[in-house]
Design a protein that fits this description.
Elements lengths: L1 H38 L9 H5 L2 H8 L3 H12 L2 E5 L2 E4 L2 H9 L1 E2 L2 E2 L2 E2 L18 H11 L5 H23 L8 E2 H18 L5 H4 L4 H8 L1 H10 L15 H23 L23 H34 L2 H14 L8 H4 L3 H13 L9 E2 L3 E3 L2 E3 L4 E4 L1 H5 L49 H18 E5 L7 H4 L1 E2 L3 E2 L4 E6 L3
Parallel strand pairs: 2-10
Antiparallel strand pairs: 1-2, 3-4, 5-7, 6-14, 7-10, 8-9, 11-14, 12-13
Helix pairs in contact: 3-11, 7-8, 7-18, 8-13, 10-12, 13-16, 13-18
C-alpha cells in the first residue's frame, strides 16, 4: 500500500510541477505582452499588433522575400512612423532619413549601425562593421582608392570586361533563343569588381560559367535572411542551418578555398600587379606580410569590396535593360542620345558620358524603381530625435527607402518608370508633372558617414556598360515576358532578380 501511495504522490508532484511550469510561462508571456503593448518606449507608435508583442511579423515579411513591400503597405495603413517589432520603428519621411544617417557627433555617426547584417565574424570588415571608430579607420584606408585620379587609372579595367561582353554578344546574333541577361550581368559585374578590388581574374565572361564563389553566395542568399532573423529568436537559431541546400555546401568549401588562394596571391604580388587596384590602399607594395588577425581583416574587406562592387552593378544593368525594353519611347530616347553623341565606340569614356542627361535620368529612375538595398539600414538610437519624435536610447530605427520611392507625396506617378522626372528644366523631354518630385531627398547610395565611398565608380561602371552596349546593339525583349519589380523580385540577403531573355543585334553602320 505504501509504495502505491508514494508512486501516487510522485505522480501528483510531477503533474503539479508541469502545471506550475505552464502557468509560469503563460504568466510571463502575458506580462511581456502587456509591457510591450502599453509600457515599452515604442508602445505609442502604431503598427501591426503582432509586431508589437513579438518579432514574428518582422521575420515573416523577410522570409517571404517581400519585406520592402510589406513595409510600404504598413506605412500606407499606419502612417509615417510604424512599429514593426517590439523594439524597432520604421520611418518614411525625408527628414527622418537625414536625422538617422546624416547626423554626426564629434565626427562619428550619431545613430550607430545595428548588428542586422553581421554574420558573426570576429572582424566585421567594412560593410558590416558596427563600431564607428573602426569603421571610420577602414573608410580612411579606402577613400584614396575612389579618388578621381585613382578611378582614372582604373578605368581601362572596366572597359576590358565590357568589351569582352560586347564581343560575346556579337557571337549570339545567330541564335533565335537570345541570351538570359541576369546570368551574363552577374558575370560581367563580378569580373569587374574582383579585378578592381584585388586584381583577381575570375574569367566568368570568358569561360561563360559561374565561379564557385558566385554560385555559393546565391545558394546562401536565403540563409543570410534566416541568420539575420535567428538573432531575434535565440532558442530557434539552429533552424537557420536547414535553409542551406546540401548541394551548396561543397560549392561553399570550394569558394572559400579559391577566395583564400586569390587573396594570398594578391599579398604575394604586392608591388607587382599588372594594374592599380583598391587593395593598394590596404597594403602598400613594400609592406611586410601582416600578422594573422590583420590578414583576416584584410580578407574580409576584400570580400566586401567584391560584393559591394558586384551586386548593385549587376542589378542596375539587368534593371535598366528590363525597364527600357518595356518602355519603347524611353528606349528610343536613350539610344538616340548615345548614338548621336559618339561617332566611334572607342570615343565612349567615363568623362564623356557625364553630359548625357537622359542616360543619367535613366539610371536614376532605375535606382528608384528597383531599390537594391531596401533593407531599411537599421540603426540604434542614442537617445535622439527623428523627424520630431524623440526616440529613447537603445530603440532600433530604420528608413523605409522603398516605401519613400512609392509615396505620391514625394514622387508623381510613383509606380511607373518615368526617367523624365530626373531631367533638368531646359531639357527637351522635361515634363512639368514631375516638377515637385523629391529628387534631392533620394539617396540610393545613402548619406552621411556611411554613404557608399564607391558611388562615383558605380556611376562610371553602369554608364559605360549601358552606353557601350546600346551604341553597339539594338536590344530586343523576347516575347512572353513582363517584368514587374513588386511581383517578380525578392529581397533576402541580396535582391533576387527574375530571368530576362533578350536578343542583341549589331547596329548597321
Amino acid at each position: 500500500m505504501a509504495p502505491q501511495m508514494m508512486e501516487s504522490m510522485l505522480e501528483g508532484a510531477a503533474s503539479h510541477k508541469a502545471v506550475l511550469a505552464v502557468v509560469t510561462i503563460l504568466t510571463y508571456a502575458t506580462i511581456r505582452c502587456i509591457y510591450h503593448l502599453y509600457f515599452h518606449p515604442a508602445a505609442r507608435y502604431p503598427g501591426p499588433k503582432l509586431a508589437a508583442i513579438s518579432n514574428v511579423w518582422y521575420a515573416y515579411q523577410w522570409i517571404t522575400g517581400k519585406y520592402p513591400f510589406a513595409i510600404a503597405e504598413a506605412h500606407r495603413k499606419y502612417g509615417d512612423v510604424v512599429r514593426i517589432a517590439p523594439n524597432e520603428l520604421v520611418f518614411i519621411t525625408p527628414q527622418a532619413g537625414t536625422d538617422m544617417f546624416g547626423s554626426q557627433q564629434k565626427g562619428f555617426e550619431h545613430f550607430t549601425k545595428s548588428d542586422f547584417i553581421s554574420l558573426g565574424r570576429a572582424d566585421q570588415g567594412i560593410t558590416w562593421e558596427t563600431d564607428p571608430v573602426k569603421h571610420r579607420q577602414k573608410v580612411k584606408w579606402l577613400l584614396p582608392a575612389f579618388s578621381a585620379k585613382s578611378l582614372k587609372t582604373k578605368e581601362p579595367i572596366i572597359h576590358k570586361y565590357i568589351d569582352i561582353f560586347v564581343e560575346k554578344m556579337k557571337k549570339t546574333v545567330q541564335s533565335d533563343r537570345g541570351i538570359e541577361l541576369r546570368q551574363w550581368a552577374d558575370w560581367l559585374a563580378m569580373d569587374i569588381a574582383a579585378d578592381l578590388g584585388y586584381s583577381r581574374e575570375m574569367d566568368q565572361l570568358k569561360e561563360e560559367r559561374s565561379s564557385p564563389y558566385l554560385e555559393s553566395i546565391w545558394a546562401a542568399n536565403f540563409f543570410v535572411t534566416m541568420h539575420t532573423n535567428a538573432k531575434k529568436f535565440p532558442l530557434l537559431g539552429w533552424l537557420q542551418y536547414f535553409s542551406v541546400p546540401p548541394a551548396a555546401i561543397g560549392n561553399y568549401v570550394r569558394a572559400i578555398s579559391a577566395n583564400n588562394k586569390a587573396f594570398m596571391k594578391r599579398i604575394d604580388d604586392r608591388g607587382m600587379t599588372q594594374h592599380p587596384d583598391h587593395f593598394d590602399q590596404l597594403l602598400a607594395p613594400g609592406a611586410p606580410i601582416p600578422p594573422k588577425n590583420d590578414l583576416e581583416s584584410l580578407e574580409t574587406i576584400c570580400l566586401h569590396l567584391l560584393l559591394a562592387g558586384y551586386e548593385p552593378i549587376s542589378s542596375s544593368f539587368h534593371g535598366i535593360i528590363a525597364l527600357i525594353l518595356q518602355d519603347p519611347p524611353s528606349y528610343q530616347r536613350l539610344v538616340k542620345e548615345i548614338r548621336g553623341t559618339f561617332i566611334s565606340y572607342d570615343d565612349i569614356t567615363a568623362d564623356s558620358l557625364v553630359p548625357l542627361k537622359f542616360l543619367y535620368a535613366t539610371v536614376m529612375e532605375q535606382l528608384r524603381i528597383i531599390v537594391v538595398g531596401a533593407t531599411g539600414q537599421p540603426r540604434v538610437s542614442p537617445g535622439a530625435t527623428v523627424d520630431g519624435h524623440y526616440i529613447p536610447k537603445g530603440v532600433e530605427v530604420q528608413y523605409g527607402n522603398y516605401a519613400f520611392t512609392r509615396d505620391s507625396r514625394w514622387f508623381y506617378d510613383p509606380y511607373n518608370f518615368r526617367p523624365q522626372r530626373w531631367l533638368p528644366r531646359d531639357h527637351a523631354d522635361w515634363d512639368a508633372a514631375f516638377e515637385n518630385d523629391a529628387r534631392d531627398d533620394f539617396h540610393p547610395w545613402s548619406v552621411g558617414i556611411r554613404a557608399c565611398p564607391g558611388m562615383t565608380l558605380s556611376w562610371h561602371e553602369i554608364r559605360l556598360i549601358i552606353a557601350k552596349v546600346l551604341w553597339t546593339f539594338d536590344v530586343e525583349l523576347l516575347p512572353g515576358q513582363d517584368i514587374n519589380y513588386e511581383r517578380d523580385f525578392k529581397l533576402w540577403g541580396m535582391l533576387e532578380k527574375p530571368d530576362l531573355w533578350v536578343r542583341f543585334k549589331p547596329v548597321d553602320r
